[in-house]
Design brief:
The structure holds 2 protein chains of 2 kinds.
Chain A (H helix, E strand, L loop, with lengths): L1 H19 L5 H4 L3 H20 L4 H22 L22 E3 L5 E3 H5 L4 E5 L5
Antiparallel strand pairs in A: 1-2
Helix pairs in contact in A: 1-3, 1-4, 3-4
Chain B lengths: L1 E6 L3 H11 L5 E3 L4 H5 L3 E2 L9 E2 L2 E5 L5 E6 L9 H9 L3
Parallel strand pairs in B: 1-2
Antiparallel strand pairs in B: 3-4, 5-6
């Protein structure tokens, strides 16, 4: 049972450290290998612990929870975060970037064409922190 | 090269972000997502409480207002790295 619980702990550790820490750097963010590595160790521990357990009820339940969490995380990073609209109408390379005016953090209007008059501009659209 | 960030956040929310993260480039507020729609980047209902937000995307616009490089990610966790964006900028010169 100890091994099974340690496995569940590693599953949680993998998910929490990814969300709180490893998501910050592209090398650990793009493919969540830190979480997947912990999942592999967790699976080995849980399956080994489950085999050796004299009574299987609780170890089975804990293993099932661990597997469900791993599945949830894996579906999250492979399906949910890829569920983006197609953006076919987005300006392509070689096309004119639609001009616009929007307020900055001081409510001052900023116009794209005024900026491009003096320098190249990198437009970064992001999801926001709401 | 001038970086410009755009989201549906209010100017006040963006100012908090600038203060916390120490960003010095302009962050613009597209509260009703009109520019996000213009660029076909609307991700309907994907924000908090079902608000419409932008899907992540990066465009390099030259001095003639023409798009010279862009990155439309297929996964919102995976965005252009600073190195990719700087490499795209250098290729313009």
């Amino acid at each position: 049972m100890k091994r099974v619980l340690l496995g569940l702990f590693l599953v949680l550790l993998g998910i929490v450290t990814y969300a709180a820490l490893f998501v910050r750097w592209p090398v650990t963010r793009d493919v969540p290998w830190t979480a997947f590595a912990l999942f592999v160790i967790a699976l080995v521990l849980m399956i080994g612990g489950l085999r050796n357990a004299p009574r299987k009820v609780w170890p089975s339940i804990v293993t099932a929870i661990g597997v469900a969490l791993m599945a949830f995380f894996t579906v999250g990073v492979t399906v949910f975060t890829r569920n983006l609209p197609a953006s076919q109408g987005s300006p392509a390379i070689g096309a004119k970037a639609p001009d616009f005016t929007l307020p900055d953090t001081n409510h001052k209007s900023v116009t794209l064409s005024q900026l491009t008059a003096s320098s190249n501009v990198l437009l970064i659209f992001y999801r926001g922190y709401w | 090269m001038q970086p410009i960030a755009i989201s549906v956040d209010t100017p006040e929310q963006s100012r908090d972000l600038c203060n916390k993260a120490g960003y010095t480039f302009p962050i613009l507020s597209d509260g009703n997502a009109s520019v996000i729609r213009q660029y076909d980047l609307l991700h309907k209902g994907a924000g908090e409480n079902g608000h419409d937000i932008a899907r992540p995307a990066e465009f390099l616009v030259d001095r003639n207002g023409v798009v010279r490089w862009r990155n439309l990610t297929e996964d919102f966790r995976v965005r252009a790295t600073p190195e990719q964006m700087l490499a795209a900028t250098r290729s313009l010169h």
